[in-house]
Design goal:
The protein is built from 13 helices and seven strands. With 294 residues, it is α/β, with parallel strands linked by helices. It has three domains: 5-49; 64-138 and 246-282, Nucleotidyltransferase, domain 5 (2-Layer Sandwich); 141-200 and 211-239, no CATH class. The protein starts with a helix and ends in a 12-residue tail after the last helix.
Length: 294
C-alpha cells in the first residue's frame, strides 16, 4: 500500500521536531523506527529549508508581554522573543539587540497594556517610542544578578554591604508601604555615601600626557547607576498586580531550554540554528506558565 505524501511529510516533520527539540540522538531515533541514520538525514534535508513562522494572536484585555532576547552565537544572531503569561506570541531573528531591530519586531505586535523587560537599552527605547501608554516592569532577577556581579557576594566596604542588602530586599517588597520604606532607605543610602562615591584615584603622570584619574569605587557606582536607571520601572507590579516581577516566563520557561538545545546541536550553521529556535518556540505557543515566576 502506497503512503499518502502528506501523511509521510507529517511523519518526517514529527521526527525532525522530536530530534531537534528533544534529548534523543539521531541514531537512537533511527533505531526506534527501523531505519538508518543516513535515511533520517535524507528525510530531514528538505525540512531545514522550511522554517517555522510565528502566529500573531489578536490583542486581549490586560495583555502583558514578557520580552527578551537570546544570542545563538556569541554576541551575534539574536532571537527576539515575545511571550504572554501562558503562550508564545512571536519571535524574530536579528544580528543584534539594537533599537532598530527591536522597533521592527515590536511593530508586528499588537500594543500591550504592560511589558516586562530585562532593561536592554534598545528594547526600552523601542517600547517608549512605539508603545508610550504601556507600563514597564524591570525584571528584578536581572537587577539582583547584575548588582551582585558589580558588588560581589562579600563587598569590602560599608557602602557596598548596605547596597547589597537593599538589593536582596527587593523581593520582599510587595505593598505600597514596603515600596515607600525601601525607597526611603535607598535614598538615605545615597545621601550618606555621596562623598564616598565621589572619591577619585589618580594615575601616574606620563610624559606628554595629562594626569589621569578615575572614580575609586567604580563598581559600587555602577550598581548605583543600575538601580537609579531602573527606579521608575522597579515596582510597577505593585500598582498593576497582573504584571509579573520577572521575565522568568521567557528566561526559565523558554530561554534556558533553548540554550541547552543550541549547545546540544553545537556546530550547526547560523541558518540551521534559526530553524532549531523556530521549532522550539513553535512548540511553546500555549500552555501553563512556569511556577515561581512572579
Amino acid at each position: 500500500m502506497r503512503k499518502r505524501p502528506d501523511t509521510r511529510e507529517r511523519h518526517h516533520r514529527a521526527l525532525f521536531t522530536r530530534w531537534l527539540t528533544g534529548n534523543r540522538s539521531l541514531l537512537e531515533i533511527a533505531d526506534d523506527h527501523g531505519v538508518s541514520r543516513r535515511t533520517l538525514i535524507r528525510w530531514f534535508a528538505p525540512l531545514w529549508e522550511r522554517i517555522q513562522t510565528p502566529t500573531i494572536f489578536g490583542q486581549t484585555p490586560c495583555t502583558v508581554y514578557i520580552l527578551d532576547g537570546v544570542y545563538l552565537s556569541g554576541r551575534e544572531n539574536a532571537a527576539l522573543i515575545c511571550r504572554t503569561m501562558t503562550a508564545q506570541i512571536s519571535w524574530m531573528f536579528a544580528e543584534r539587540e539594537t533599537l532598530a531591530h527591536w522597533k521592527t519586531f515590536l511593530k508586528s505586535l499588537p500594543m500591550p497594556d504592560a511589558a516586562v523587560i530585562d532593561g536592554q537599552k534598545g528594547l526600552l527605547a523601542a517600547i517608549q517610542c512605539l508603545w508610550p501608554t504601556a507600563v514597564i516592569q524591570r525584571c528584578l532577577v536581572h537587577i539582583e544578578r547584575l548588582a551582585r556581579i558589580k558588588l560581589t557576594r562579600q563587598p569590602k566596604t560599608s557602602a557596598g554591604k548596605e547596597l547589597l542588602m537593599l538589593v536582596e530586599r527587593l523581593f520582599d517588597v510587595r505593598t505600597h508601604k514596603q515600596r515607600r520604606r525601601w525607597l526611603c532607605v535607598y535614598r538615605r543610602w545615597e545621601r550618606r555615601h555621596a562623598d564616598f562615591l565621589k572619591e577619585r584615584s589618580d594615575g601616574e603622570p606620563q610624559a606628554g600626557k595629562k594626569r589621569t584619574w578615575w572614580y575609586t569605587h567604580r563598581n559600587i557606582r555602577a550598581a548605583r547607576s543600575l538601580i537609579r536607571n531602573a527606579l521608575s520601572h522597579l515596582f510597577t507590579f505593585i500598582d498593576h498586580p497582573h504584571v509579573p516581577r520577572t521575565t522568568n516566563h521567557v528566561e526559565g520557561g523558554v530561554n534556558s531550554r533553548l540554550k541547552e538545545l543550541v549547545h546540544r546541536h553545537r556546530g550547526l550553521p547560523q541558518d540551521r540554528k534559526q530553524v532549531l529556535v523556530a521549532e522550539h518556540l513553535a512548540r511553546k505557543k500555549g500552555g501553563k506558565p512556569p511556577r515561581n515566576v512572579t
